[in-house]
Amino acid sequence: MKFDMGAQVLSTLQSQSQGSSTDLGLLIRQLIQAAQPLEGKFHGSGKVAFDLFKSRADEITAALNGSLAAILGGQAGMDAAFATGTQEQGENAKTQMAAGNFDAARFSGR
Asked: What is the pTM assigned to this prediction?
């Protein structure tokens, strides 16, 4: 099996995830505003659940953003690890080539 990934894939993913994190809080607030006309129509456990969601909107937003921040941290770590691995691979190749005896590998009829 071959795993091939471009050098900028994780950076691009991290950038797109960051934009999603910014949008998330706004979407939750829009959901609450959109549900506002329904506020007086719930009774019983439906009303309790709606009121709880509405009162905890900031807490829910913070928890979701915290989770996304952890994902972003993981993506940043993977990006750094891949960049370091790529750099080390190049340095190791240069070191091995410098240590090689290419003169011994010449095939000549002499």
From this structure: 0.57
